[in-house]
Specification:
By secondary structure, this protein is of the alpha/beta class. The chain has five helices and 16 strands. Strand 13 and strand 14 form a beta hairpin. About 30% of the residues are buried.
Length: about 260
Amino acid sequence: MTSDSAQQIPVPTPPSDPPVDSQLQVRLKTEGERLLLILPPEGESESASNWSDLWQQLKQRLNAGERFWQAQATVHLMAQDRLLDGQKLQAIADALSEVELQLVRVYTTRRQTAVAAATAGYSVEQQPPTFSLNQTPKEPVSLLVEPLYLQITVRSGVEIRHPGTIVVLGDINPGGEVVADGDIFVWGRLRGVTHAGANGNRNCRIMALQMEPTQLRIAEAVARAPQTPPAQFYPEVAYVTPEGIRIARATDFAKTHLLLNS
């Protein structure tokens, strides 16, 4: 027996999950001819800062849905402020290789990640850190960041970019390129391309134990090595004069430039 006065009790609607911010997820996107693998900034969320969660996201992006890339396409890793060591970079490269993609370049704001990527043989561009409107840097941001020290051989096809001074404890082979907003010091043979003062600073210098460059650039000035190599090599410094780039022995340069200014 029913009663007309009986009331219907509404069924509560289960709470919906909050929308997922795509900026905090691993993303793959095309930009011109480049395929970008974009990692979320470190520390923006608990899931973003956890490597295992990040790794699962990466595997899902690579293996789920229709693949929109061509086989053997090259990938530029946008690591942002994420700290990646050689083991993690190798894991990412292996995961990309499984779906016929090749990691070739790493963009990062972390010096440790830049060193790990360069050591692994990838082209690297270290970028100055950026801050959103609701963030303030923990330390004052200088115009030039700390020097980047690399104990590697910069091989053909590898490009290193850094918004400060670069010190290479090794050789720069033909076909390798090093670009710095500050000075460039090569504790070895310089046989590739170097560009110091890339932001326009004509006071920057390039020094090498053995100077055989394909091309030297300081700010907007450009020079090439002589076609006939010298009979004997000495540590040399390239610097800008009103007539263009000059190369001098390091000992002579110290006498004429450093000691006079001390």
